[in-house]
TrEMBL record:
Domain of life: Eukaryota
Keywords tagged on the record: Membrane, Transmembrane, Transmembrane helix
Matching InterPro entries: Cupredoxin (IPR008972), Ser-rich/MCO-related (IPR052953)
Organism from which the protein derives: Lyophyllum shimeji (Hon-shimeji)
Protein name: Cupredoxin
Bilayer-spanning residue ranges: 254-276
Amino acid sequence: MDTNPVWMFCQQTGHCGQGMVFAINAPADPDPKSFNAFQARAIAINGTATTAAQTTTSFVTPPAPHWQTATATVTWGSSIYTTTYTSYDGTPPPTPAPQPQDHKIVVGADGRLAYSPANITAAIGDTVTFEFHPKNHTVTQSSFLNPCKPLDQTSTTGQVGFKSGFVPVSADATEFPTFKITINDTAPIWGYCGQKNPVDHCASGMVFAINAVESGPNNFAAFLELAKRSGATSTSASGTSTGTGSPRPTSGAVMGSTVAISGWFGLIMALVFFALV
């Protein structure tokens, strides 16, 4: 007996590709051999392993998230404030983290078309830092039902979403550029890589989620499946999809610095509170 990591999975067809794996003695994040990295690799490699017949007949597109307006009184340290926010069943309460944390997501980890970890939970006030590794990727916010399209192209309420632009990183790089966002509410955040050359990265499963509600139909596995299915109908008419050269941050984003962007829902009072402390 020893303390080396032990890796296991469910052998039922398609289960491993949906993330049904577990580990014993796995290193903690951000180690590249952490459990989250192991699960992301299982999804990235095996997510398309189901047969055509199974894929066609077994998957049902989940309904659009049904949002409701909620009001909550939040106690944070010695301060008490009331906030109105948009939520649905399963989203956490709008309570800031006692000690904000930074969550690291590696973009293109180990040369794979994957974010690692691809599915995380972050509290209000936390930050998420995307660290770009070799090749040429993006971090682009999308929506649940349109995983591989920028949020500003599909939103019916004027949402813009964050975009890192293309970030080329050489194979011999020893320092890696970063893109950071700040979590300002509890709404799920969906995103993808916009690279399409030589293959469509999003349709290959290169997507991520922050605060996805795993107990409902709009979970990360369903989002990943929708992304993979987008490859059957996507086109590459846009000349910017293969992007080269310097990144083009938008929505006030600056590479390597904090970007106060999130799911773009509510929490106006919370934002005012944070601005005053």
